């Protein structure tokens, strides 16, 4: 299991994923079990009701899931590339202000690595809760990732 400091994962994500830079995402926690990323309140990314656009919230949640994937499986990059396979998002309440995504890995790291060791292309979910400053959950997303072995 790999763990990286929050600034390191945030800098790496900003360097490799231009949308992370564009949205100004802030990485405050990143471990193999949990990642926390925030979307600052920026009028350029608002929707018609003054909250963050659904696309910005999707990108926030997907980025939090990517941070957990990179910390959990970064030590596997020499033999596999992590890829998002599919995602489902539900918007539950109006989000206003700063929105925070909290991602949690839905399958033990050891199980995923064992499947990779067996020559499989493992899939695993990452569950993300989106919340506003008052703690209300405004959305939930599940992203299914895979580790695709290098040919």
Automatic annotation (TrEMBL):
InterPro entries: DUF4442, HotDog_dom_sf. Coiled coil: none annotated. It comes from the Bacteria. This is DUF4442 domain-containing protein. It comes from Streptomyces cacaoi.
